[in-house]
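Progress narrative, Year 2. Work on Luciferase domain-containing protein from Kitasatospora kazusensis advanced from sequence curation to structure prediction during this period.
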Amino acid sequence: MPLPERPGRRPLVSTDHPVEQITQCTPAHLREQLAQMLGALPGVQLRPSFVCVPGTLGAHLSPALAHAPAGAFLSATEFGHLHPPYDGSLHLALPQALASEVIRNGWGVPAAPSGSVLVYGPRDEQEAAVARGLLLASYRYACAWEPPVDDAGEPGPIMSAT
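Result:
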């Protein structure tokens, strides 16, 4: 299932380091849902990010599960992080094809390190479902899990995390 186009205008994002979302920030309850989902993933510990501003929740994968190459991580075993409450965007390491789709369909912008993306924070429940799917895709990438395929051999939906 392809990533849908994000409706509406893109939010403003800072161009300096660290890259942060400035407008259309995530409501607190949606950010909390994302934080809970991240913390519930097997082998993930939420700790301060190694590479972002204070208040950022880093998703640190247990070394026992971190089987992917270095490109699947932002730093050490941190495969993604959730920016502070005043922002609510996500910084995720994603497979190249998915990262390109995120950018092309208006869900985020390229970020450092190369191959990672700043995913815009969700504004509503529908966008939160997409964000959860992208978080799960980043987690699977870090664990070096192959995406599921359907009977026709096509990749399965990334939006399965609801």
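Strands lie at 44-48, 57-61, 78-82, 90-93, 108-111, 116-119. Helices lie at 28-40, 96-104, 125-143.
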